[in-house]
Amino acid sequence: MIYIRSIFALLLCLSVGLMADTYNISGRVLDNRGEPISDAQISIPKIKAGTFSRKDGSFSFDVPPGNYTLHVEFVGFKLRKSKLSVLTQAIETGDIILEPSTVELGEYVVTASRSRKAVEDIPTAINLIESVAIKERQAKTSAEALREETGVFVQKTNHGGGSAIIRGFSSNRILILVDGIRLNNSTYRLGNHQYLTTVDHNMLNRIEIVRGPTSVLYGSDAIGGTINLVTQQPSLLTDSDGISYNAQLSGRYASADGENSGRAQASVYNRSFSLSGGFSLKEFGDLRRGGNSDNPLLENSTNGLKQSPSGFSGYDADAKLVWQPNSEHNIVLAWQHAEQEEVPRYDKYESGSNITWLYDPQIRTLGYLKYTHEPENSSWFSASNVSLSFNRQQEGRITQKTAESIIETENDDTKTFGSSLQLTSNIGRHVLNYGLESYNDQVESGSFDTDPLSNAITVNSRGRYPDDARYNSLGYFVQDEWYPSDRVLLVGGLRYSSFNTEFDVADAAGNGLQTIKQNFNSLTGNVGLVYKFTGSWSVSMNAGQGFRAPNLSDLAKLGESKGDTYEVPNTDLEPEKIVSFDASLRHQNGRIRGELTGFYSGISDLLSSVDATFNGSPNFITGGDTLKVKQKANTGEAYVAGFETSLRAEITPDISSYASLSFSYGQNTTLDEPIGKMPPMFGRLGLRWQQKRYWLDGFLRFAAEQDRLSADDLDDDRIPEGGTPGWQIVTLRAGFDLLDQLSIRTALENILDVNYREHASGINAPGRNFIVSFELRR
């Protein structure tokens, strides 16, 4: 008995001794693009040990000797398991690559709260498109990358255009951000435009969309929603003092327009410094429409199936410098330049109103400096962000009606200087985001006429906008996120915004110019709630105000507009305002994720185009054509109501199905007519098969007929008489990875070659379209 007890005591001592010895497990967590994933959970369930990855993706923790299974997981990615034998020394796992899961909702968003938040802690309706999805969708532009999103409809005036419509609102009622920097300026027009397509989708890391008003956080224009295009940022080394680099070459071909595009990018980095840059070259031919249609209204092209002219070319360049001297400080200096040349506005050619109508040039240049400070020990704030930015939008138009008529050339140049300060403070169960931002526009605008017979040039008295106009905005905001319990989140915010503008216009008597000075002010608020019933079910509700201050395009635009109309200034305008309510029911677990959202938005002082006079006449005659005179005006009260729903279900570990459906109904109650450019019901239904290196995706995308038209819609020759017919198209896509360096993706869009037009577009969508692309990485 004594012998047995002695042996037991010896074994116990040895066991305690072994448990006292520990070894370190370290590594780094990356996504399949090589970008670090922070806050990923690394664990060994057997012994209940683990940690979370840091900002640079690195992790480190100690364990006693043993044989283990390491679990690495993060929302939006597949669980990664690895066998480890930790017996005699520390273990370096190296880079652990997580593959995206088939779940559309991503791990976190920034745009909805101006700070990093988990998806389940957001009361508003959101979309998150990761870089993998952008590439798999084989999108031609950033606008087309949004086509498959719940609640987002895309209109295209021309082949180079692309404007998102969210909950019935589009153009300058949607706010566009790049890395949180405002792109909307005072010359963004109410009609649909192409500004979204000037942001190269090849340089994007993700796209975040907030559906519904976000004016408390971002100010004017954020009525229908906010789109934040987040660019790539190279990672930093964590386990070496040396220098590393990576490079990527990609290309794309599409048969419907003979597209040939490509991009080259590279980055070099060490522990605290990274420098990256890229260049994209794009060439698009005339777009071929579908050959199968039951509606002759969509077959009025004089060139058969080819919609000519619609092709154009362009290029994009970008560079980014990141300096992180330590874990508390981060500085980013970025520059982007995009240029499109001779982009035809196809609807003007098809209608026969012009022999020349070109956007030339179409140039966007953005530069910004950002500084982020996240102190480890501060009683005042947990993070501060300062940014300075310069955004320049250059837009030119060249138009000619007949071979003998005058060639009109317009040039608009808008320079925007921006600055912002944002602080985040954690106070108990409260998270406060507060700060201020300012944007200042300087507008140069001019035009001249050229006689095609004599080449004589006549400089006009003004361009589309008043030359040397100024438009300034200043906003102060605060938003509180309160977590009274683990299941409840309450959000409340306020913003005060001030605008002032100064420009010259001709006086009513025609005796010269008069200087117009105007000021607009707005106080907006929002409240939101998230309640989590269980681990998988939650409900969210949100009530928010939004507004859009009249910009220079509303107040002072002069020139031809859509259809046979001529727009004149109206300096007697008020901001349009919205009060929106929405509620969402969400379910998400490992196999099924879905969301159902209903919304209602009441609008006051709605800005719309109305009949007007110019020099006492309701018509304007130019080059032998008679145009109807219109201007922007506050037309009264309106509302938009509807729903958005999406569902994704994992049938097997390799096969998943998905569906979405969106509907908006808009009515101007003052004029007793529909709100213009309201999209029809639309949606998608699909099935996906995915292995580690292979995937196959097939879906049906559809839209119903839209025959609810406003008086302004009836003047728009882009909309067929009687409305836009409904349509359904089938698309099949596939991709595979060869080793870790090469990815090949293919697609066959619109397999049945349907001839269709997305509502309010000026060009028919592509017919049967074969696409192939590649991505080579080093």
List keywords for this structure.
Ferric Hydroxamate Uptake Protein, Chain A, domain 1; 3 domains; five-stranded mixed beta sheet; 6 helices; disordered N terminus
Describe this structure in words.
By secondary structure, this protein is mostly beta strands. It has 3 domains: 2-98, Carboxypeptidase-like, regulatory domain (Immunoglobulin-like), CATH 2.60.40; 108-226, Ferric Hydroxamate Uptake Protein, Chain A, domain 1, CATH 2.170.130.10; 227-777, Maltoporin, Chain A. Helices cover 6% and strands 55% of the residues. The chain has a 22-stranded antiparallel β-barrel. A 5-stranded mixed β-sheet has the order 10-15-16-13-14. A hairpin with a 7-residue loop joins strand 8 and strand 9 (117-118). Mean pLDDT is 89; it is low at 1-20 and 102-106.
